[in-house]
């Protein structure tokens, strides 16, 4: 009942099929007619031959004529047969074989490709290319993509180029050619091909984005910026924001980079990578509140984010929140158990909790994992100083100095160690070097002054004391919120009293104020020496996390003149003096304080 | 005694929301989510599973119908099925749906599992220039070479691509061209395309059992909507790329929305009365699954992400998946008002997501390649999956199963409670620390003293070595030489190879000799002194000589090699060769 309603379209659709069948019928018909004619002729000749037999001729004549007619009849039937056969032979190939559609398996190839089932995909492609003799553009395209994923970039490039020949109007093919060139490191060639692709397809963010990336590699930041902004106008993608931010960072324009990352975070608020990068940038600028906010966000979305954990943890450490930081570090230690900065930070956490032995074992592990990291060595030296293991401290500090010969604090710590090792001459030289290198830390001068005072060189001590005051003033001027470690202040006051420096009053005032403020916000980070300590932890986090760490920058600096530096590790100790610490009755507490004040600095 | 099994049972029961209804690991099904449908084919209220099986990928393609756990029928298909849908094509009673199987350029319609109609895609427009050229060829006005040149010219410029015939012709060798042209020139040129995806769209009513139109996407980047009865093209829309996945909602006569994922990694949203896409979502990787949840679109990407978008293309959320997506489907339970997305992963798991929250996980014995949720038999919540190895899994959602609405983001990760691996403090360590504290100064001084002594000793040894040329590297500026020696053999005869190299930039070294110094009781050498040829800079000169070990006591000694310069008594180089013990004699 339903089939009676035959759809009209079916006729249309098979109409063209009928044309070929029609010609077939026609041919068959012609053959049949020919065959019938020849049969008729045959019959006629047989009749003729029998008639001939009855003809009134001689026997030979009759036989000859009838045989002739029979022969003619046979010939005709043979010729007609061959004729029909040749006709058929000639006509059949006219209905040429149906050529398979080139694209008929494209969907299957695509389906397997996006499911990452590359083995099956390759098998289908091979089959398809055999069938089409390598003309199926999409099969070649996907094969090239797979080859590229397998690392055979040169081969993939050749295949993409052949795709571009098969279909020169497709910007996709050019895009992939350019991408392969880019991966091969031929950035200039890639730019050219991308430009060509851009001519074919004006509004493709991918082309603009990749052009931008190419320009970054050719160090043409201006064009790169332009292209990436164009890409953002066309379509917003996290990747583009990332790249744009990177450009600004490479140009050293942190403010602008932050601007970009802010926009990126607005667009894609759950991208932990963006959040972490923004957080680290804020941290670099010292905007800890904002940094913490973003890092915290990143951690909410991905509690296992290693970079964010390290950065956030180091900030918590700065605030003395060691337990929380440790909690976070445990997560990171599970995912990345062999990270030197992580173990460094864990070590400093233990240090802050006054678990010195654990701190040392963690720091030693960090040092084992990264033996040339001076920050770890610095911290190790510090912890050993605290543990009164001066000989060990000396070794770690001198190793750190060998790796990083331009940091005043290192020389100062070394001097402290040397003082305790009774090597006053070298301690003094070390202090001198520290003062030369350091311009802002009053602690260096104070410690030096203490040493000089203990040595009885009051004049020099006074000079150092004045130096220290200058630095303090400078710090207060540059940033009125600067707070000083109470121990530093106390020590300075005692020193001032001992030296009978007239400026005593001047110093005590800010000291007291700062003391109060310190009490009011005991767990807030600040103080002039904070950078000394915090930078260790923070710098660590940075170095691994953001990739623009201080250590890298420092490493690129020209080698300082090592010869001129009194590098204690290479020098033999001064003549062993049998004398004990010549300290006056007032001094012992000072000396102790002096030692303590430094470790604290780093602990925070 | 029974506590352990009880516990296990409890664990299994509480963890699973599904009943394992059927699992056939050797069902031999090679199919995709697009080729699976559940339909009440016989109008008996019992849904059957219709599968378009790709067979081996080249042959043995079948249309299989399952009922319960058994195969009900099998129809042979001529080509690979691209997609399969069941739809109601008319209002006739009984209301049994037809099956449309898209395959190549055709749609085969089956009614009552019998072939009913074949729809062929309209042919594409042929480039008029190409047509001209071929008609000229037919009249024998141009020879194959000219034809080739002209076709190449057309290929490089024209907007309409060449037909298969011309493309194939261009790939031919010159001697094959003539017969090819003769073979094909009489036929009209045709350009055909193939179907890449298929869907259904209700015609004019939103009811469950309303008549539906077929929506097809083609390789020629077009979308057609077909009339369900006459199979005429009701509407034609074009896309910027080839469609791969589609989702259709709405009614043709009122308003509809076709969401199409394309091969260029974009998703386009088509609406009624617009021949071009209305909205576009640009993804950063290829979409693998596309599912509509209410008014939102959920896309699973090849980059192991799951995105949610509004129907206007605004991004709502992103979830990161633990493994690549293989396929996706919607889990719709209208009776309970529950909708979720089933995401099959390459890690042999199927995740159930409600928006961005993971509400349940199903472990499967193999990687799931196609997935479908719906009414099968008489059971509403049935999950049908086929695996990469060809298995068929049927699971039934328990009626008591509850999907927790809670945000499944776990609080702190488990790792947070794992103790840090920090070694304990040992007595030895404490003792050492105490010792250092007490004797720091002495230790330091002793160390520095020893360090200086060692440095001094090293420097002296170095100077001595330099002075007496004991090193295998020559320090002199006129003869910068390098030598190393290799001993081969087990004994008693050893082969001694000296590699000498002139490390100067350009100057050759002449007049050199080599002499050996050894214990004559232990070793013998045919020539213990010989001259060496001129040494060209940079080249390595291997010089072989043989040493015989005379001792059978298993002892060995050092052989010293000197490189000498004529007329000088001090050697330029000295090498000490530690001879191995002769094993040959030990055997004797």
UniProtKB/TrEMBL annotation, chain A:
The record's Pfam families line, in alphabetical order, gives: TPR_11 (PF13414), TPR_16 (PF13432), TPR_8 (PF13181)
> What is its subcellular localisation?
Cell projection, Cilium membrane; Cytoplasm, Cytoskeleton, Microtubule organizing center, Centrosome, Centriolar satellite
**Which GO cellular component terms, listed alphabetically, does the Swiss-Prot or TrEMBL entry include?**
centriolar satellite; ciliary basal body; ciliary membrane
One GO biological-process annotation of the entry reads: axis elongation involved in somitogenesis
Q: Which domain of life is it from?
A: Eukaryota
Give the stretches traversing the membrane.
Answer: 20-42
Q: Where are the TPR repeats?
A: 238-271, 272-305, 374-407, 408-441
- What does the UniProt keyword field contain? Cell membrane, Cell projection, Cilium, Cytoplasm, Cytoskeleton, Membrane, Repeat, TPR repeat, Transmembrane, Transmembrane helix
Segments of skewed composition (Low complexity): 517-529
PROSITE patterns linked: TPR, TPR_REGION
Q: Where is the composition biased (Polar residues)?
A: 530-543
Q: Where is this region: Disordered?
A: 507-604
Give the similarity note: Belongs to the BBS4 family.
Family annotation (PANTHER family): BARDET-BIEDL SYNDROME 4 PROTEIN, PTHR44186
The name this protein goes by in its record: BBSome complex member BBS4
UniProtKB/TrEMBL annotation, chain B:
InterPro entries recorded: BBS1, BBS1_N, GAE_BBS1, Quinoprotein_ADH-like_sf
Q: Where does the protein end up? A: Cell projection, Cilium membrane; Cytoplasm, Cytoskeleton, Microtubule organizing center, Centrosome, Centriolar satellite
Keyword Membrane set for record: yes
Species per Swiss-Prot/TrEMBL record: Astyanax mexicanus (Blind cave fish)
User: Any idea what this protein is called?
Assistant: BBSome complex member BBS1
Entry's Gene Ontology cellular component terms? axoneme; BBSome; centriolar satellite; ciliary membrane
List residues of the Bardet-Biedl syndrome 1 N-terminal domain.
18-271
Bardet-Biedl syndrome 1 protein GAE domain residues: 481-583
Primary residence: membrane
Any single biological process term in GO: visual perception
Q: Which UniProt keywords apply?
A: Acetylation, Cell membrane, Cell projection, Cilium, Cilium biogenesis/degradation, Cytoplasm, Cytoskeleton, Membrane, Olfaction, Protein transport, Sensory transduction, Transport, Vision
Which molecular function GO terms apply here?
Answer: patched binding; smoothened binding
Q: Name one Pfam family in it.
A: GAE_BBS1
Its subunit composition reads: Part of BBSome complex, that contains BBS1, BBS2, BBS4, BBS5, BBS7, BBS8/TTC8, BBS9 and BBIP10. Interacts with the C-terminus of RAB3IP. Interacts with CCDC28B and ALDOB. Interacts with PKD1.
